[in-house]
Amino acid sequence: MGVLGYLLLGIFLYFFYNLSVKVIWPIYKTTKQIRRQFKNMSSQNQEHFTPPPQNKNNRTTSSQVGEYIDFEEIKD
Predict the structure, then answer these.
(1) pTM to 2 decimal places
(2) Which structural domain range is residue 20 located in?
(3) Which keywords does UniProt give here (predicted)?
(4) What domain count does the chain have?
């Protein structure tokens, strides 16, 4: 490989370095930050909108309130 080959390789590496540092790396950092923010927002929403746990005692008292009557359809 002659001097021209090394020169072309150097130019290629320079453009590749500039592309990766100025374009690819900022896009990677931005998407990582956005994902982190969405994750934080979703966890905050889940904490805010989760219903309080129900007590098992409430279920037993509601079933003791009345008697269950089976419904039967009468045909003419």
Answers:
(1) 0.47
(2) 1-43
(3) Membrane, Transmembrane, Transmembrane helix
(4) 1
